[in-house]
């Protein structure tokens, strides 16, 4: 969470509410902790790991923040309805000020076998159902609860700007998120709602087990201008900025939070 000793952070989102999808682990957990540390009441969405979601809520509450868990298995037909039923129970009559679309298709082994020769129709459907369709439908519902001046932030990926044949379907889905971001920023600007995205690169979290391999970590670190793997808190900091009033004049932007990954030949 944000440093409790910094009063400027503890109050910047006071009185605000936020929904973070996929917030039980990894980057989503870090985002939930950051927004709660900034003063927001956070709905911690999870799909299957209730224990991890409860741990995230408990961590927020230990630092004096406010949070509650909401369960919905994104990609299923009734997921969005279940998500907003749980959100309504937790928020009561309060509006939803901030939406962070972080949840993404989690079969990492399949994602890294997604070349044109290997990709299947089922894989494409599963990836797009969670990574594209769900965020769009969640935004559609969230807008009914969001006041003018709200914030929408989605998590994209450097896969949307780099040629990675092994992540073809995943990269395509994140490209769709970036198109959605620009289109909705244009449409929702009249309401003062900003719509942005953050694009991480390789990030060291407990759901990226492959990054524990020393050789892979070294190779990915060498592909970053800053020569290391990112940390979930660094992605959360970018989201926290975009969710704050400091970013009130920023919309339709894709913020690269990859440490400068895949910029060109390494010198």
Put the structure in a nutshell.
The protein has one domain: 3-Layer(aba) Sandwich (Rossmann fold), CATH 3.40.50.720. Helices cover about 40% and strands about 15% of the residues.
Blueprint of the fold:
Layout: H1 7-11, E1 17-20, H2 26-37, E2 41-46, H3 50-62, E3 66-71, H4 79-91, E4 98-101, H5 108-111, H6 121-142, E5 151-155, H7 168-188, E6 194-200, H8 214-222, H9 232-243, E7 254-257
Parallel strand pairs: 1-2, 1-4, 2-3, 4-5, 5-6, 6-7
Count the DSSP helices: 9
**What's the helix-strand series?**
HEHEHEHEHHEHEHHE
Architecture, according to CATH?
3-Layer(aba) Sandwich
Number of domains: 1
Terminus-to-terminus distance? 36 Å
Mean pLDDT score, rounded? 91
CATH homologous group name: NAD(P)-binding Rossmann-like Domain
- Computed Rg: 18 Å
CATH domain class name? Alpha Beta
Helix content: 40-55%
Shape: globular
Spans of at least 5 consecutive residues whose pLDDT stays below 50 are none
Look up the CATH topology. Answer: Rossmann fold
Q: What kind of sheet is the major sheet?
A: 7 strands, parallel
Helix/strand-derived category reads alpha/beta
Q: Give the DSSP E fraction (strand runs of 2 or more residues).
A: 5-15%
Order of strands in the sheet with most strands? 3-2-1-4-5-6-7
**Assembly classification:** single chain
Total beta-strand segments:
7
């Amino acid at each position: 969470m944000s440093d409790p000793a910094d009063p400027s952070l503890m109050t910047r989102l006071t009185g605000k509410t936020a929904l973070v999808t996929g917030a039980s682990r990894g980057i989503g957990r870090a985002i939930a902790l950051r927004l709660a540390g900034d003063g927001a009441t956070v709905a911690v969405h999870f799909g299957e790991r209730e224990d991890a979601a409860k741990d995230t809520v408990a961590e927020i509450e230990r630092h004096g923040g406010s949070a509650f868990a909401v369960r919905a298995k994104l990609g299923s037909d009734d997921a969005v309805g279940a998500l907003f039923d749980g959100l309504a129970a937790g928020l009561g009559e309060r509006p939803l000020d901030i939406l962070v679309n972080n949840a993404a298709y989690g079969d990492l082994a399949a994602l890294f076998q997604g070349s044109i020769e290997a990709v299947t129709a089922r894989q494409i459907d599963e990836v797009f159902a969670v990574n594209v369709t769900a965020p769009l439908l969640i935004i559609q519902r969230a807008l009914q609860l969001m006041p003018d001046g709200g914030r929408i932030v989605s998590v994209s990926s450097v896969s949307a700007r780099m040629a990675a044949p092994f992540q073809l379907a995943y990269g395509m889905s994140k490209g769709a998120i970036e198109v959605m971001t620009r289109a909705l920023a244009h449409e929702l600007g009249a309401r003062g709602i900003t719509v942005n995205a953050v694009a991480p690169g390789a990030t060291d979290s407990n759901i990226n087990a492959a990054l524990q391999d020393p050789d892979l970590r070294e190779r990915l670190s060498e592909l970053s201008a800053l020569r290391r793997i990112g940390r979930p808190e660094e992605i959360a900091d970018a989201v926290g900025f975009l969710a704050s009033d400091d970013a009130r004049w920023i919309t339709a932007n894709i913020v690269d939070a990859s440490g400068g990954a895949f910029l060109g030949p390494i010198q």
